[in-house]
């Protein structure tokens, strides 16, 4: 538990720093041009919404099969093949993407086609980073990856916005900086994974073919993909639909509200990431009493913290809008704060039930639930 507490505490500190950076940007910087901020808020969620198609559950497979492959000294072989699998999936995805717009040219009026030069490469970088992120979590190290996952996107948004609005750079130059931050984070994942354990690429297929392990991996990855795509669609489709069918300006306002509410979820993120390997180990060893105790304890703690933080947001939000440029536009959207905040609080109260199900033999249940939620 000491590793969990230590890593979770450091993770939360970085999370709060990221929140502070995001909040300052949302309050004092992004409202100056909500349209351009809305474009930035459209690009990343759209890429993340399509991300599961490319990852295809391989990131979670690097957690589920890590102990098994590590015992046989093949965990890096598993990682290497996972990264190759992501690249192959991306090539297939590209073919399907361009085929869709070729046969249905009317959809080329959509923003996703106009911004494909940024969104498509970003999907590949995020997919490779997702696999490395989960691989690193097996070593119970989530602090440094959290910098890449939480801080770098905020710097990307802030830097691109400052370049465009205050420094007079073109949109293309600003987008280049935006993408460069994610590419730098990807290189950081590689460097840190190599620091934890020297990476020795191994692309042989003997281990994955042994006892038809590839079938088990493919089955788990496929069902993980179905559940994950439901999860990403459910939680990313809002920015996509607002930017695509309303306006980038309204998407920018919605993004600012989400930035404020993200304060509620910071303690949860640190604990959940470090808990994934522990959950699987408890299930693997049939130690359900320990898992039950751990689940209930963390759920109560997270709910209490979330309730306090949500109460602070509800009380302070109307006053906060008076200090924000175009704050009246945000006050009109105050029902969004109640709806999304209540949903986040309920998620904290149920703890990491989704993680337990995903890593157990009942993982298929998550598919039904998440696809239902996506609809």
Structure characteristics:
mainly alpha; globular
Strand content: under 5%
Element string (H = helix, E = strand): HHHHHHHHHHHHHHHHHH
The computed structural class is mainly alpha
Distance between the termini: 38 Å
The largest β sheet comes out as: none
How many helices? 18
Mean of residue pLDDT values: 83
The Cα radius of gyration reads 21 Å
Q: How many structurally independent domains?
A: 1
Outline = globular
Range of helix content? over 70%
Walk me through the structure.
It is a single chain. Helix content is 82%, strand content 0%. It has one domain (2-374). The chain is mostly helical and 375 residues long. It contains 18 helices and no strands. The model has no long low-confidence stretch (mean pLDDT 83).
What is the strand and helix layout of this fold?
Elements: H1 2-28, H2 34-55, H3 58-64, H4 66-71, H5 75-103, H6 111-114, H7 116-137, H8 143-165, H9 171-196, H10 206-209, H11 213-245, H12 248-261, H13 266-284, H14 288-320, H15 327-331, H16 334-349, H17 353-358, H18 364-374
Quick summary of this structure?
The chain has helices at residues 2-28, 34-55, 58-64, 66-71, 75-103, 111-114, 116-137, 143-165, 171-196, 206-209, 213-245, 248-261, 266-284, 288-320, 327-331, 334-349, 353-358, 364-374.
């Amino acid at each position: 538990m000491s590793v969990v507490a230590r890593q979770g505490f450091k993770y939360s500190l970085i999370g709060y720093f990221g929140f502070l950076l995001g909040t300052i940007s949302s309050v004092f910087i992004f409202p100056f041009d909500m349209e351009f901020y809305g474009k930035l808020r459209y690009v990343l969620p759209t890429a993340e919404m399509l991300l599961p198609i490319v990852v295809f559950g391989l990131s979670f497979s690097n957690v589920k099969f890590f102990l098994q492959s590590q015992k046989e000294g093949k965990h890096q072989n598993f990682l290497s093949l996972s990264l190759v699998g992501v690249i192959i999936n991306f090539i297939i995805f590209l073919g399907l993407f361009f085929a869709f717009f070729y046969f249905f040219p009317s959809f080329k009026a959509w923003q996703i086609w106009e911004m494909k030069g940024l969104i498509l490469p970003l999907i590949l970088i995020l997919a490779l980073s997702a696999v490395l992120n989960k691989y690193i979590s097996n070593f119970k190290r989530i602090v440094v990856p959290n910098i890449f996952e939480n801080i770098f996107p905020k710097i990307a948004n802030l830097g691109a916005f400052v370049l465009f609005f205050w420094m007079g750079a073109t949109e293309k130059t600003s987008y280049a900086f935006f993408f460069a931050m994610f590419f730098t984070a990807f290189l950081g994942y590689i460097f840190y994974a190599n620091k934890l354990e020297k990476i020795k690429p191994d692309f042989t297929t003997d281990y994955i073919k042994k006892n038809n392990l590839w079938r088990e991996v493919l089955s788990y990855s496929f069902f993980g993909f179905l559940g994950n795509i439901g999860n990403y669609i459910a939680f990313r489709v809002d920015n996509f639909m607002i930017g695509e069918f309303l306006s980038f300006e309204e998407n920018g306002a919605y993004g600012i509200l989400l930035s404020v509410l993200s304060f509620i979820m910071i303690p949860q993120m640190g604990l959940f990431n470090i808990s994934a390997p522990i959950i699987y180990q408890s299930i693997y060893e049939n130690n359900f009493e320990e898992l039950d105790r751990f689940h209930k304890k963390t759920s109560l703690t997270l709910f209490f913290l979330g309730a306090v933080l949500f109460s602070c947001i509800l009380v302070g939000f109307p006053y906060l809008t008076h200090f924000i440029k175009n704050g009246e536009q945000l006050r009109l959207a105050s029902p969004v704060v109640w709806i999304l905040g209540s949903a986040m609080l309920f998620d904290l109260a149920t703890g990491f039930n989704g993680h337990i199900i995903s890593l157990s033999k009942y993982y298929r249940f998550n598919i039904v639930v998440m696809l239902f939620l996506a609809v």
